[in-house]
Batch of 4 targets.
Target 1
Amino acid sequence: MQQRTSSVRNIKLNGLTYSGIFNIGDAVYASTKAKGIAVQKEGAVFSGDDGVQFENYSLFDMETNLPEQQQPVQKTTLQHKETIHVGDINLLGVSQAAIFQVGSIREVTSEARIKHFRRLMDDNTHTNQADS
């Protein structure tokens, strides 16, 4: 990996959460993994435990289906300048296995598994319907 200098005048990042990576500098390898359950309720009243657990959903137990490694690609890269200059970077957030990298990186693996639920009120009873 050819070494280059990255020069950034200003970075503004509002949020970094849930296995997100913010890295300044060169890296050989970065790996992130996140799993989450999101429950959205109509007439939202959350009790703390809504009965939604990771072990209830096979999504979180499945093997990761990564593509097979291909033969290495032969390439020649010509860098016109030794420094990468960037002005301002404004980020709302880096989250759920995302990576923000200033610098070189050789290999990245990233995986996020999110199960979303929307619980709607039953018209007759005004209670939340069960998950599907």
Target 2
Amino acid sequence: DIGSVFNIMGIAINRSCYICHSLIYNRLYSSKNSLCCVFLIWMLTLVAIVPHLCVGTLQYDPRVYSCTFTQSVSSAYTIAVVVFHFIVPMLVVIFCYLRIWALVLQVIWRVKPDNKPKLKPQDFKNFVTMFVVFVLFAICWAPLNFIGLLVASNPVAMAPRIPEWLFVASYYMAYFNSCLNAIIYGLLNQNFRQEYRKIIVSLCTTKMFFADSSNHVADRIKRKPSPLIANR
């Protein structure tokens, strides 16, 4: 969750710079600066995880049969987690994608000045893919985070009012998001579709090879006479 949201935020900032500031993109995202951005995302993730160990919010929850973030341990900390690990990154991503959509609409309506670089079709396809990834991430993780805000507002009164099925559904909905990315890339990205096709063909070919080999060995065993019969 934490690493994913910072990664999505980093990608949104990158796409915004690439599409809206393409003339200076290579200078902004040089090899050195790109490595620094990746390092920063990892550092933000590690810094965000450490307080969980200090506050003691990671506990076993029998409702989901796993050790997870307990929203009722500390109201202030839960609110801080939701704000800085979900709301703020989502606002940054929304701002970046709104800028890109504004540019896309300018291109469609032909009101974009001709002295600026035009949006390439491949760039637009990549943007749409990442935008869909962001939208699904926000949809999948929003219920669990909003439940966290409700519980943190008044743990004693609100925690018992949250139906168990609602919490469990929002919990598994959030983590199911990780399974969707491969599907999204496969549907919207031609390179991924080609690689998926190669993998499937390779697996099917391997299965057929082993099946043919097994049948061939079985036939040879059946045709080979028994040693006792041969000695007679």
Target 3
Amino acid sequence: MGNWLSSVFFNFDSFLFAVTGVSFDRRLYLRAYQLSYNRNYYDPSGLLTAAAQIAATERMSKRKPSASQPGTSGMSAYNDDTDMEAEMKSDVSDWDNDDFTTSSSDDDCPIMTKEQEEQMFERERQLAFRGRLTVGDPESFDQMKSDIESRCGGCRPSTSVALICLSREIGSRAGKLTTNKKQPLSSGAQVAVNNSFFPNSRKVVQKIQSKTFCCQYVKDGRELVVASQDEKIRFFKKDAPYEKRSNRYVLQKEFQVQACGWSILDVALDREGSSLIYGAWVDAVFYGRFTEPSAENPPGVTWHTMRIPDEYEHHMAVFSVKFSHAGDEVLCGASDHSLHVFDVQTKERVVNITNAHEDDVNSVCFGDESSHLVFSAGDDGLIKVWDRRALREGDHHPVGVFAGHRDGVTYIDPRGDNRYVISNCKDQTIKLWDLRRFSDKTGIDATKKCVQSQQWDYRWQPAPPGLCQPIHGDTSVLTLRGHSVLHTQVRAKFSPEHTGKRYIYTGCARGEVVVYDLLSGTVTNRLKGNVAVTRDVDWNPQENEIASCSWDGTTSVWQWDERKSHVTSPDSDNEDSCDEFYNDVVEVRKAPPKKKKKRASTSAITSTRRLRSAVANTFDDFDDDDFSD
């Protein structure tokens, strides 16, 4: 249940589900239990009840797979969220009055029995674990699936690695057998083999007594950068393969930043790894240039402060920072609702888009290699696309807007093909957008209205019901559900090129790394291990390795371990949690055999006897007078 535990300490007097159109004499009230906690007594059933009530906020009935939607190439799709009310009506009509117990309150409201609560909790748990994909634009989704299949060589998850290697050895190309065995695997076959060895084992890089906020691979995956709330940025380097402790990260260097406020919120490095920027609860972006360490500058970092003019003189936070692809400009989004672009050489602000959003700007990024397109997302629930060429001419209007979320957007990530971008949101969804299909005014107004009507705070409250209902005018290609976005700005990203960009992976408030498969439309992996929210994740650009950082202070890397797929937990029989039960096989050393005493050879014995006889004869020749004084 993860961070649902933080919600247990709230008292839910009652929870109202207004079911419209139900042939009931009165509306259905589901009264939550008052969970009392003291140090001397703990009732596990009470915790289960509270968790069930929290889980029930999203939907009340078991979801059933529907027929494949048109244009999805036979992929198993799930029902749309609009059928939730009909299923609730069906469930409610099946309940008899005897199914409810009578409460002792003045309202005499019916409550669910313990058996019904357990069934509801199990339905919600299975739904959250399985994940859910809803297609909004079948045509665009089919085109993206075709692109993924071409990158993966048309391979499905059932592709046999042995058959691929056999085809390579016998030189099979286009169904013809040849004698050429020196041709390497095709790019699609390489991706298929790579995806067959998915990360499944967790290795802890470092554990500190502070929340970790950001992690990022640099220098083609050879180093890992981590920023935490203790005002420090740490660099970890992977051991060389020839060393004994290979595939392990060791602390290379760490340094304390100049200014931090509450915490470091975002960190970015240029492609060469020679410069660094970070944002925090300070009205400035801090730029660092790496130099050789010296007595005057032991960390080897020269800092420059790029101030953001604050005309209102209030406390401001820089939530997101990014380098341009050339490394000559810095883009940032802040709590002043604006976008800022700085020149690295002059350290001056060259572009300022005032009030780019109606609320905090939580995430920014460059959309293409030329850095002409700029993406931004904020707490107003909108994703906006800007053109730098138009900004130079003084046109500070977005070229397009994506609308469809019901709450603030926490992170955006482009696919790198100048077409698709994903957004992670506080409405517990990830949406995929197509740059060729922007939203119209109807969708934008509907999104603003939904966001402004939200009355909950994701930092300490569970997600309310109704977030799964689609918005009129939503132009997203698809919507993914199955992870939790609470407490902080959880990030979601596309998998790198060597996976065929087949996956979307994200952190989770339950301490997991959740990986969605765009071909199957389900959650393909849940990498568990953290006990607090996993805020940031990053996939190694060269290897099948995922880094994650959590608010429990743990920085971890997930790698493939062949032992994980063969050893199961003796308690749960679950391969996903078997690593903690793994015991190394101790080699039993056998005692060396006793050495047998070798008998002297016959020739040696004969020689010894002759020597003794000669010595005796010599002494017999001496008289007693020969030894006199």
Target 4
Amino acid sequence: VRKNVPPYVKAAREPLSYCGVNAIGLRRRGFTDAQISNIEDVYRVIYIMNSNISQAIKIADLEIPNSNEKDTILKFIRNSDKGIMRGIS
């Protein structure tokens, strides 16, 4: 794995890339539907909108409601030494 894999996601393919939020695993861990939806909203901005990562972080910070999950994701991305895996091609 050359790039970091952000929290709460599924990764697949070669090269490794984002393929969705691991909603089943999150439900098993006790996350609510609202928390999972918030996580999906963050990753929608990060991976699906046509923005570079720094722009996507700013957009997510401003437009997605505050939550512990959002903070965890954005902190992980900001602190990533190798960058994060690429999005859907």
